[in-house]
Amino acid sequence: KAAGRNTYALFGEHMDELLRTRRALEQDLRLALREGTTIEAVFQPVFASDTGELTSMEALARWNHKKLGPIAPDIFIPLAEETGLIADIGQIILDDTCRCLVDAPSTVSIAVNVSAIELASPSFPLRVLSTLESWEIDPSRLELEITESVAVEKRGAVESNIASLRGAGVRFAIDDFGTGYSSFARIRTLEIDRMKIDRSFIQDMEQSGNKELVSAMIAMAHARGMKITAEGVETLSQCQALKALRCDNLQGYLLSKPLSRDMALSKIGSDTSE
Ligand code: C2E
Ligand code: CA
Ligand code: CA
Ligand code: CA
């Protein structure tokens, strides 16, 4: 019994500390957003699998905390979602994306991750379109990545926002395909331009049966007139297998890590499409 109480006391203290840490991090995030210098986008190149050409990039949020150093998006994005700060981060990333698109060849597009909360917000389409307009960027050069679970909640709001943005030329991709619930069933009812196969499927591709699964995803995307990207490509054999399966685009550490804006732009300049 004594040990039991002890465990609870420890648990309680630990929870307290976690909550304090979380509140402190939230404060820091608010401050970072107000100052506007420590949160920015990096860009991971995406390549056409047939020509090897750099066709697009994915914008990924980075927070360089003044004292703690880099904080992973898996930590600060959920925190921002829970504290109502996600739209502010989304706007920073969208502005960084436009700044990069302005200096990139017009054939290059950039994909931006959108959280469920942003996508369901009534002001979202106008915010995106007016940002594109102020940078004089063609909406077809922006792709928005959403997850399948997003699409389940607030279905009406999400669908009408997708429709108005697609009407203006913005493209949509389903991110982390295969990891959500109702994957295949859900995709049928959404107007989507691309699927991104989650990297867990790519990592396991060498194991028996998994190549067939990836092949089925590619066939399904193509049958529905969608493009398909494999993410998390880390080895040459994964790369070759995906090329053979006619996966349209490839992304992963084997091809390029996420890069700063300047590095990404110089990579486009030097891209010779092997
Ligand atoms: P995601 O959208 O699935 O992004 C892909 C993640 O995989 C990125 O992690 C990227 O750096 C990493 N990655 C790319 N290639 C490889 C590879 O070959 N191997 C491995 N192991 N990883 C690879 P990152 O940048 O840490 O982002 C994590 C997640 O945070 C993202 O997953 C996305 O869900 C979220 N996120 C990042 N930026 C934003 C943003 O601006 N807005 C929102 N709403 N979410 C974001
Ligand atoms: Ca993504
Ligand atoms: Ca993904
Ligand atoms: Ca993800």
Considering DSSP H and I runs of 4 or more, what fraction of the residues is helical?
A: 40-55%
Which structural class fits the helix and strand makeup? alpha/beta
Amino- and carboxy-terminal Cα gap: 69 Å
Net shape: globular
Q: Name the average pLDDT.
A: 90
SS summary, helix count = 12
Question: What does the radius of gyration come to?
Answer: 20 Å
Count of beta strands: 9
Oligomer: single chain
Write out the strand line-up for the largest beta sheet, numbering strands in chain order.
Answer: 1-2-4-5-6-7-8-9
- Poorly predicted tracts of residues: none
Ligand names: ligand C2E, calcium ion
Give the topology string: H per helix, E per strand: HEEEHHEHHEHHEHEHHEHEH
Largest β sheet strand count, sense and barrel closure: 8 strands, mixed, barrel
Proportion of beta-strand residues: 15-25%
Protein name: Diguanylate cyclase (GGDEF)-like protein
